[in-house]
């Protein structure tokens, strides 16, 4: 009867401008889809060139190489007898569009340009592309000669149209269009489109996955239909981790779920679904049918092909499943770990060096690397040949098989405790014990000699010797002496990263890991060019509150008992002299605010779009039970003074895994001045007026 259609979607770990690797992964996904009986295959957004090409989209080379890859796909026998839907940039009449190219048996059926471009947060699509603004309009697109020679076509349809096969009708959305208030699937569904296809380049943010799933399911809950979503996965060259979650939904319920975090470069979901379930679902929604009778029709591209087989009564169809979401602690354990793995293998380095202080932040970073080692061992155990090959290259051993996460961690993670006369024995012991439990190669050293030499140079030149405030020095002297210690640690971290393996008779170098969390960055509670300056930072987009929860998760799931004492100790930089052998300096006292307060300030500033006055107005209600309006005003003023004084530090912030919506990352996400009038005189006067 031609009722059961078999369709495939995928999550691919594409890499910006890696045309050869991207092509190979596309071919693998098509092979898997065909082997499972799929008649239609959907891939992620801009999968041919990679989503994160950024200003390389301006280059004609990117367009040329994308068409060269398309040529390989079109002429390959692997793409025969399956509708392939791939993403690439296309220039039409000298305008660059983000497009889907849909083809079958060496013929391009439709080039569908993106209608709603993502242009907020980390997304800058309007910088490189123009949205297609001609609704339900199709034009002729003149194909490049290299494509004409394969397809025998001179022109193909370009624009906002849908595909009609022998058994159903398919309509395209591209990523952001699902999130738009006037999503195309609404009108397409009313016009008889039964299968909606969405190729995405959606990155991970803590606690975001459910929003994407809910949107997909709601797309067909009101209107009926089958919704297929593909997504990029992995680190394609910058701060973002694309978190897969390919899925297939029907009539408001999930029927197939892909993984959110994994080391598999290619993941394909295949589902067989009954079109009659869509038709019967729609038949009883009278409001939908009334609207459908008046809809403005889409141009249809007729395709002499069916997604079903004539004799399909015995074909089993997929049933609804319950989506399993990760907890935030699991997301922190898995997302940054997968991002680190991609960065490590693609940068061709031999491992990581982590300055391990014995505090929560550096310990959380160590745990993320340990989680990465768990993921690698699990992937190899499950037969992932790509991960095994990458592992052997990283450790420079062609016969190596990673089986024990602790043993593998010793090969790829070097931890270094850099003591000074201001360090306590407690933090030294905590760092050593944690290193033993995760298995890292651990180094302990003392920086006092280097610090004294640097300070001596200053004293010789100026004739003055700075002192800590506890010894009678000024706050300026004390801060400068703290910064010298922090910056020497950064210099030593890079020295040991470059030469530790050399000293051990091993090839390669190490990537330095940073350990500043999102709250410290927002407040500027870090020394510019200290150990927060590194190659990459897996926790730079994660709050202190979430990191504490993650530490507890590691205690329970990895049995890292060393973390208990780290959790109970107050956070401290250990840059000021000890008092009676004990740490007297704490982070929250230094900052003049708690980490919990910092998270609230950060969310109001970025997500709530609040300046000083608006933040004060919101907080006098939020904190009405614990602070007076005058106390709230004082806190808000202190935050904005410190934030604006230290904003310049964000311009040199280590590239960090993006995980939080209030990240102050200056490169792309949080665009602000770095030279402020720190008096905020007008804004603070408005606050004072309300306080009075």
* CATH class call of the largest domain: Alpha Beta
CATH superfamily of the largest domain, please?
Answer: Carbon-nitrogen hydrolase
Average pLDDT metric? 95
Q: Determine the fraction of residues in helical runs and give it as a percent range.
A: 40-55%
Give the amount of beta strand, in percent.
15-25%
Spatial shape: globular
Note the quaternary state here: single chain
Largest beta sheet, briefly?
Answer: 14 strands, mixed
Second-tier CATH architecture of the largest domain: 4-Layer Sandwich
Uncertain runs are none
Integer tally of domains: 3
Report the CATH topology name of the largest domain: Nitrilase/N-carbamoyl-D-aminoacid amidohydrolase
Treating each run of at least 4 consecutive H or I residues as one helix, how many helices? 24
Instruction: Let me know the number of strands.
Output: 20
Structural class: alpha/beta
Plain-language structure description:
The protein has three domains: 4-302, Nitrilase/N-carbamoyl-D-aminoacid amidohydrolase (4-Layer Sandwich); 326-447 and 489-567, HUPs (Rossmann fold, 3-Layer(aba) Sandwich); 585-691. Helix content is 41%, strand content 17%. The protein contains 24 helices and 20 strands. A hairpin with a 7-residue loop joins strand 11 (226-234) and strand 12 (242-243). Helix 11 (360-381) crosses helix 13, helix 15 (448-462) crosses helix 16 and helix 22 crosses helix 23. It is globular and about 90 Å long. The protein starts with a strand and ends with a helix. The relative contact order is 0.09.
């Amino acid at each position: 009867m031609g009722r059961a259609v078999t369709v495939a979607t995928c999550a691919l770990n594409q890499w910006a401008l890696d045309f050869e690797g991207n092509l190979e992964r596309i071919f693998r996904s098509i092979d898997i889809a065909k082997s499972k009986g799929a008649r239609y295959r959907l891939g992620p957004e801009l999968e041919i060139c990679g989503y994160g090409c950024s200003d390389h989209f301006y280059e004609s080379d990117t367009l040329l190489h994308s068409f060269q890859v398309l040529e390989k796909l079109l002429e390959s026998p692997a793409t025969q007898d399956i509708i392939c839907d791939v993403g690439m940039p296309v220039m039409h009449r000298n305008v660059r569009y983000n497009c889907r190219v849909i083809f079958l048996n060496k013929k391009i059926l439709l080039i569908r340009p993106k209608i709603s471009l993502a242009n907020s947060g980390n997304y800058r699509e309007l910088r490189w592309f123009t949205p297609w603004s001609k609704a339900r309009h199709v034009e002729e697109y003149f194909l490049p000669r290299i494509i004409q020679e394969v397809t025998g076509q001179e022109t193909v349809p370009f624009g906002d149209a849908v595909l009609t096969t022998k058994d159903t009708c398919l309509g395209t959305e591209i990523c952001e269009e699902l999130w738009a208030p006037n999503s195309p699937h609404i009108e397409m569904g009313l016009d008889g489109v039964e299968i909606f296809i969405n190729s995405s380049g959606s990155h991970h943010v803590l606690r975001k996955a459910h929003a994407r799933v809910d949107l997909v399911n709601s797309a067909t809950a009101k209107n009926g239909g089958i919704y297929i979503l593909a997504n990029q996965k992995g680190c394609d060259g910058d701060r973002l981790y694309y978190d897969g979650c390919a899925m297939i939904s029907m009539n408001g319920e999930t029927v197939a779920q892909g993984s959110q975090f994994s080391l598999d470069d290619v993941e394909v979901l295949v589902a067989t679904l009954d079109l009659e379930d869509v038709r019967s679902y729609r038949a009883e929604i009278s409001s939908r049918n009334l609207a459908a009778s008046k809809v403005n029709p889409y141009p249809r591209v007729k395709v002499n092909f069916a997604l079903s087989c004539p004799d399909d009564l015995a074909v089993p169809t997929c049933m609804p499943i319950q989506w399993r979401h990760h907890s935030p602690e699991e997301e922190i354990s898995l997302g940054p770990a997968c991002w680190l793995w991609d960065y490590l293998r693609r940068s061709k380095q031999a491992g990581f060096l982590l300055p391990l202080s014995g505090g929560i932040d550096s310990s959380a970073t160590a745990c993320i690397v340990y989680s990465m080692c768990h993921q690698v061992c699990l992937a190899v155990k499950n037969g992932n040949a790509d991960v095994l090959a990458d592992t052997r290259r990283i450790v420079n051993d062609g016969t190596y098989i990673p089986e024990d996460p602790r043993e593998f961690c010793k090969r790829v993670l070097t931890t270094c405790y850099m003591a000074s006369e201001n360090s306590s024995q407690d933090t030294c012991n905590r760092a050593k014990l944690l290193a033993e439990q995760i298995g890292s190669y651990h180094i302990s050293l003392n920086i006092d000699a280097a610090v004294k030499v640097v300070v001596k140079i200053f004293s010789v030149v100026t004739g003055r010797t700075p002192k800590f405030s506890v010894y009678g020095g000024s706050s300026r002297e004390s801060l400068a002496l703290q910064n010298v210690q922090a910056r020497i640690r950064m210099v030593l971290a890079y020295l040991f990263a470059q030469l530790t393996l050399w000293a051990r008779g091993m090839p390669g170098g190490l990537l330095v890991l940073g350990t500043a969390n999102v709250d410290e960055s927002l407040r500027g509670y870090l020394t510019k060019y200290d150990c927060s300056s590194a190659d990459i930072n897996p926790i730079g987009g994660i709050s202190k509150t979430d990191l504490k929860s993650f530490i507890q998760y590691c205690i329970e799931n990895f049995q890292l008992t060393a973390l208990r004492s780290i959790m109970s100790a107050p956070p401290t930089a250990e840059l000021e002299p000890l008092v009676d052998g004990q740490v007297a300096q704490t982070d929250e006292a230094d900052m003049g605010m708690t980490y919990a307060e910092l998270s609230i300030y950060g969310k109001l500033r970025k997500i709530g779009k609040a300046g000083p006055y608006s933040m004060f107005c919101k907080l006098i209600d939020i904190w009405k039970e614990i602070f007076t309006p005058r106390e709230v005003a004082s806190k808000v003023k202190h935050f904005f003074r410190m934030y604006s004084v230290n904003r310049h530090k964000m311009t040199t912030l280590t590239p960090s895994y993006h995980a939080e919506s209030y990240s102050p990352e200056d490169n792309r996400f949080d665009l602000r001045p770095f030279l402020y009038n720190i008096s905020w005189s007008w804004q603070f006067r408005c606050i004072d007026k309300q306080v009075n």
